[in-house]
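Q: Given only this backbone (164 positions), what sequence would you predict?
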């Protein structure tokens, strides 16, 4: 183990800490998106889903397969513990969210398997939010900018390089 290496538990904590877990009405306004508190909470869920997708992709890319399951469980446990408190999603239940996230994960995975870029995956997430009337068509470009800022894809891979 190198001097800078992390245990799987430390990696899980670092990954969850790196992930934005709240998008406020005020933050959305800064990006030119008008939203209610409920819409901001629904957008937060989608942002968390996209972040979790990339975290799990980074785990698959950087962590030996025999440790992937344990690290994934640690992350989901941390998410469940913070659900509704540090992760501001309103009244959404964790189990319902988890089912929705699994569907999103499959959808985003298909895109990655087709060879699309992370930006194209973000565009798919933006399209989902537009379909669910969380943003207008005119706000979609602003939402893409927000997703670039709120989904630090490169950070996740860098954090996992030090797990040993």
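A: Predicted residues:
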């Amino acid at each position: 183990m190198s001097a800078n290496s992390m245990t799987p538990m430390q990696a899980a904590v670092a990954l969850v800490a790196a992930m934005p877990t709240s998008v406020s009405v005020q933050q959305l306004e800064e990006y030119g998106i008008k939203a209610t508190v409920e819409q901001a909470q629904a957008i937060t869920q989608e942002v968390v889903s996209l972040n979790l997708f990339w975290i799990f992709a980074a785990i698959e890319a950087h962590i030996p397969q025999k440790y992937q399951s344990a690290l994934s469980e640690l992350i989901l446990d941390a998410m469940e513990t913070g659900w509704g408190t540090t992760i501001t999603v309103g009244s959404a239940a964790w189990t319902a969210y988890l089912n929705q996230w699994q569907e999103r994960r499959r959808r985003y995975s298909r895109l990655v398997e087709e060879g699309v870029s992370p930006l194209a995956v973000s565009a798919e997430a933006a399209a989902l939010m537009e379909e669910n009337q969380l943003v207008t068509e005119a706000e979609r470009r602003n939402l893409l900018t927000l997703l670039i800022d709120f989904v630090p894809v490169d950070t996740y891979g860098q954090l996992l390089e030090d797990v040993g």
